[in-house]
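Work Package 3 (structural annotation) set out to generate three-dimensional models for the target panel prioritized at the project kickoff. During this period the team completed the workflow that converts sequence records into discrete structure tokens, so that structures can be stored uniformly alongside our sequence database. As a representative example, we reproduce one entry of 130 residues exactly as it appears in the project archive.
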Amino acid sequence: MGPSMLPTMEAHGGCVLIAKHFRRGRGVEIGDVISVKHPMIPGEGAIKRVVGMPGDIVERDTPGTANTMMIQVPEGHCWLIGDNLPHSRDSRQYGPVPLALIKGKVIARVWPWSEWKWIQNGLRLPAVDD
């Protein structure tokens, strides 16, 4: 898997539980961790966090870098990033990812057994005051 999802996921040797109900982006929300067919490397997979869905405006580059640009996620696509931004190849390099490439939602890390845990949606909408 590599270091792109540290600290949420182990860099090597871990095993995850994937809910296939969320294939092709069905029910996927911003903040979910998903398993996806790698858009640049045929036959490979990747695990990333969803930060943009169709129609959303996202920052194309790494936050805090010069010349950042906002783009709109096209219909039928999502924007993915790794939790470990400096060590992640993600939508910032390969652009929007087709929803059809989503294999499912990662719902738990199950190996090593001693580090078993549920994977939570790490992004929450801000609270709205009445």
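Strands lie at 15-19, 33-37, 45-52, 57-59, 70-72, 77-81, 97-98, 102-111, 117-118.
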